[in-house]
Amino acid sequence: MLIALTRDVSPDIARCELTHLERRPVDVELAVTQHRQYEDCLGRRGYEVRRLPADPDLPDSVFIEDTCVVLPEVAVITRPGADSRKPETRGVAEAMQPFRILRFIEPPATLDGGDVLQIGKRLFVGLTLRTSAEGIEQFRRLLQPYGYTVTPVTVTGCLHLKSAATAVADDAVLVNPTWVDSSVFRDFTRMEVDPSEPAGANALLARDAVIYPAGCPRTRERLEKRGIHVEPVDMSELSKAEGGVTCCSLLFEAN
């Protein structure tokens, strides 16, 4: 059974953490509607959506990806780099416990799930304002017994590694080369975003399709020309909170 773990939009999302964007008003009702449409898209791809309730005290909690890295053998509960987000992990750990062995990033290290890009047994981890070198090292030690290799990646100009690069096929990566050195992914087919759509590197591979922000039509056209099936979703309100399509779910197969 394929599961998509999500979390409802906080009614206080307007108080979200922001690092690279100026604060703009968020239409909470529209954000909730767009999030539901995103969940519907996951359902059409064959995932059973399991939703955690919204928490008005956790403005960023809809971005559930940052709290956990789920692999076939284990789930690593992270320690988010923003202090306001650290309490988000508690509910996610409880929800994941029936499905995976749990491991935890310990203080003072920090690690955001949005900085972790998995391609097979290789894990690329962004060194960012949210993920520390010690967080990456702890992550490497936790996963070494399972045969994963962990490669630190320098990221500039955006919040997370997966703002700059994501997998769009088992052997292909979509990259914004101004935010990350694309040569890191030299072992894979590399596709670049359209220069007019710098945020267009955030794509969610969901089985045989890529869930993709509707606001990046030029990069979407590049993907489709490569034969990739794209499912567009409107993320306009969540993007104001520095969110994207990868941030809003944890996708995994129940063991």
What can you see in these coordinates?
- The chain is of the alpha/beta class and 255 residues long.
- It has a single domain, classed as L-arginine/glycine Amidinotransferase, Chain A.
- It is 21% helix and 26% strand.
- It is built from six helices and 15 strands.
- It has helices at 28-44, 88-96, 133-143, 161-164, 217-225, 236-239, and strands at 2-7, 48-52, 68-70, 74-77, 101-104, 116-119, 122-127, 149-154, 165-169, 172-175, 189-192, 204-206, 209-213, 230-233, 250-253.
- The strands form five sheets. Strands 2-1-15 form a three-stranded mixed beta sheet, sandwiched between helices.
- Strand 6 (116-119) and strand 7 (122-127) form a beta hairpin.
- The longest helix has 17 residues, at 28-44.
- It is globular and about 40 Å long.
- The protein starts with a strand and ends with a strand.
- The model has no long low-confidence stretch (mean pLDDT 96).
Task: Indicate the topology.
Elements (H helix, E strand, L loop, with lengths): L1 E6 L20 H17 L3 E5 L15 E3 L3 E4 L10 H9 L4 E4 L11 E4 L2 E6 L5 H11 L5 E6 L6 H4 E5 L2 E4 L13 E4 L11 E3 L2 E5 L3 H9 L4 E4 L2 H4 L10 E4 L2
Parallel strand pairs: 1-2, 4-5, 7-8, 10-11, 13-14
Antiparallel strand pairs: 1-15, 3-4, 6-7, 9-10, 12-13
In short, what is this structure?
This protein has a single domain, classed as 5-stranded Propeller (L-arginine/glycine Amidinotransferase, Chain A). It is of the alpha/beta class.
